[in-house]
Amino acid sequence: MLEEPTIQRVLAAAASRGADFAEIFAEEKRSSSALLDDGRIEELTSGRDRGAGIRVVVGESTGFAHTSDLSEAGLIAAAETAASAARGSGTGTTIVDLDRVNAPRPNLVRIMPGDVPKAKKVELLLMANEMARAEGAAITQVSARYADSHRRILVANTDGTLGTDEQVKTLFSISAVASGDTGMQTGRESIGRSVGFELFDTYEVGDLARTAAQRAITKLAARPAPSGEMTVVIGPGGGGVMFHEACGHGLEADLVGKGASVFAGRLGEQVASSLVTLVDDGTMGGEWGCFAIDDEGRPAQRNVLIQDGILVDYMWDGLRARAEGRASSGNGRRQSYQHLPMVRMTNTYLLGGTSTPDQILSDTESGVYISHLGGGQVNTATGDFVFGMTEAYLIEGGRITEPLREGNLIGNGPGVLTSIDAVGNDFAMGGPGTCGKDGQGVPVGDGVPTLRVASGLTIGGTAA
Amino acid sequence: MTATVSTPQSGHSEDLLALAASVLDQAAGEEQVEVLLSRATSTTVKVYEGQVESLTSADSSGAGIRVIRDGRLGFAHCGSLDPAVLVETLREARDNLEFAEPDEWNGLAAPDGVEVVAQNGWSDSVVAFPVERKIALALELEQRVLAADSRITGIRSTAYGDAWGESVILSTAGIQAVDRGASCSISTQPLARVGEETQTGFGYDSGRVPELLDLDHATVEAVDRATRLLGAVKPPSARMTILLEPRLAISLMGIVSGMLSGESVLKGRSPFGERLGEQIASALLSLTDDPTRSESIGAEEVDGEGLACRSNLLISDGVLQGFLQDSYSGRRSGSASTGSAVRGTRSLPGVGAQLLVMQPGTRSFEQLVSSIDLGLYVNSLSGMHSGVNSISGDFSVGADGLMIRNGSLAEPVRELTLASTLQRLLLDISEVGGDFEWLRGGDGACSLVIQDVSLSGA
């Protein structure tokens, strides 16, 4: 994207008023999507963005400017704006020797989505529509979306880092509406991986369509969810959303450093049941939150956050790590060149345990079984978090019985983590997620085996 | 980079219009083309512990191009106003069109004779406000919040932000619209701590004159929100009355307005689709979408397709009066656009409310509280995206707040959920407050009292 001599001159301009750190982040992104709705291919969209963000750090202050002009003159103008925003008061004649970061690509992309004819993408949507509607006359509406993106980044900084990465993602999602005497219900399913069009060699859109349609149909007969605290069993896969909210955000070093996390000051302490080992892992090939380097040029890492219930470490970006005199954990990410990086999760998951899912269920006299979760939200300072259940059932006498309508669950992170009393041996990754923080969205993955939270979760239903 | 880009002046956006016209010149034959171009300049100053934490100075621009031919629609967008990139983007939109299926109702918005109600969205004082004073404002807010209450032990972030920009829409159907605006805001997120317990608050103000931003308001709001929940416990489950202040009442109205989108109705996704003229809410509720209200900072002249914004009555005395339409849904439903297309450069227009206005009742907030024997005054709602389904109407959200006992605010509570259905919530409104205010986000709202909501707790 940029030549080394250009990079050096831009970094020199960024550091010209004196800087502890200066950085160029250049990005080129192509995206395409196709939408089917109401039985018809409604729209195809393509997008292209390119630009660079320049960051200059002086003491505790960061100056930041971005531009869509990647010419040397454009970059130098941005560098000067960033330098002036950082309000450095010295002079600098920094010439940095750049060392290329050698970070392994987490996986190879076999079929670049840009090389695939649009007609093939459209075909997938039509097929999904047909399969979802074939599930029954109760299915009254279907929408489906195909999307891919190809993002190239380059990061160079005055520490001598020079890294590049190429991130390809492909996504397919489908939503169905079922109508009956009780009104309308919805079902959704999605698959997204950091791979190319070969995604569809592994996943059949027909399966996704059937799952989404069945979710909607099942809920037509669902009863209102119960109200109050109950034992909750979460099925394998998407239940990772719960950990993302219950403790993931609370383990981000920027929030911890400002006292805005219930997990601040608790390193080395037992913060969860001893069955809990929680990992954040940007190296997981093909997963939605993987990459070779993060958006600060740091190679992806596998970081154990909680080991057997003991809090081992927080997640770090370059700025927070620098202040603590330690290394970044490869969690510095940003939505685009128009944003400053901050501490973000990658793929966050709970390691599998020894129980079989059948044992866990049959051991549960009464409660709620959640097989598909929606999004969630957390107040990291109090630890209170919510997450949605989009497919859930009652557990009665150790068996899954009636389907329940949608709702949120609420709990407090530390309380819920210590109440996990069973972890299954059926680990699976969940669907693709977008994590929002301070107005920036980044792709994240998560996964869990079947697990049980004995107490501490309140079901937000209406039934007594 | 303010130094490298021309600052929009308060005249016309001639260069953007000329650029858009140069794209339209390339329209071929029967092709209909619509070009949306925009550019904006923004500054964000974040301060922390008496120092500038970050200062972001940004220019951004973008374009979205819609092409329709033989009933087929193609779209492409880019983050640039480079003429060569625009040519490429037009080409991509055309290429995309080849793969979409024809729809007889596809088409661009055409001028409909509705006059634009002039708004004054521009502000020279935002553009002229010097960086040093932006920093000083943020630092002063941080200091005031820290000094306001000994239980405030820190602030996650305090910020000043501003932005100004312009956009133009030009189309082969005869649309030519220019939209320009500037605004500024301050915000703060304090942490209140007693013993091991931490609570958070949020304070905000926005406007078009930086000097008039109300630091006192933001401070009082932020500190009050952070401290009033200290000592909160999880309450027992019960069904009770809830009191939503204007800010939260409007977020509920926002969800309802989404259910009144003509597009949702056409596609069978609105539970209110067949209920025009029927009682869907308490007779106390009247709701209008009216972007022409100049008193609001959210007022707009034109919608996302360049049609004049207008007042649309949605619910009157609880009776459903109409749906919001863009040009597509208007045409297909046999009505017309209500000037309710919303969009950015990166997306096609969709139907949405732009400036919701509730009709006030008579009693003050204090009178509302004093009329409730047992209830919850809600402080915040969470999980609105994960537990509210506007198709089924299922409604379940996390919440915290203060109990109301015998007509007075009582102990703080947290870690609870509130559940009902959207259909029931509307019918269960038992009072609309007389405490109308223009919210800092633009909407005009009053408090709502809603009966018989399921509170789940311990």
UniProtKB/TrEMBL annotation, chain A:
This is Unannotated protein. The keyword Hydrolase applies. Residues 22-86 form the Metalloprotease TldD/E N-terminal domain. InterPro entries: Metalloprtase-TldD/E_C, Metalloprtase-TldD/E_cen_dom, Metalloprtase-TldD/E_N, Peptidase_U62_metallo, TldD, TldD/PmbA_N, TldD/PmbA_sf. GO terms for molecular function: metallopeptidase activity. Residues 113-220 form the Metalloprotease TldD/E central domain. Transmembrane segments: none annotated. Keywords: Hydrolase, Metalloprotease, Protease. GO terms for cellular component: cytosol. GO terms for biological process: proteolysis. It holds the Pfam family PmbA_TldD_1st. Residues 227-460 form the Metalloprotease TldD/E C-terminal domain. It comes from freshwater metagenome. The keyword Hydrolase applies. PANTHER family: METALLOPROTEASE TLDD (PTHR30624:SF4), UNCHARACTERIZED PROTEIN TLDD AND PMBA (PTHR30624). Belongs to the peptidase U62 family.
TrEMBL record, chain B:
Residues 33-96 form the Metalloprotease TldD/E N-terminal domain. One of its GO terms (biological process) is proteolysis. Residues 238-457 form the Metalloprotease TldD/E C-terminal domain. One of its GO terms (cellular component) is cytosol. Residues 130-230 form the Metalloprotease TldD/E central domain. One of its GO terms (molecular function) is metallopeptidase activity. Signal peptide: none annotated. PANTHER family: METALLOPROTEASE PMBA. This is Unannotated protein. It comes from freshwater metagenome.
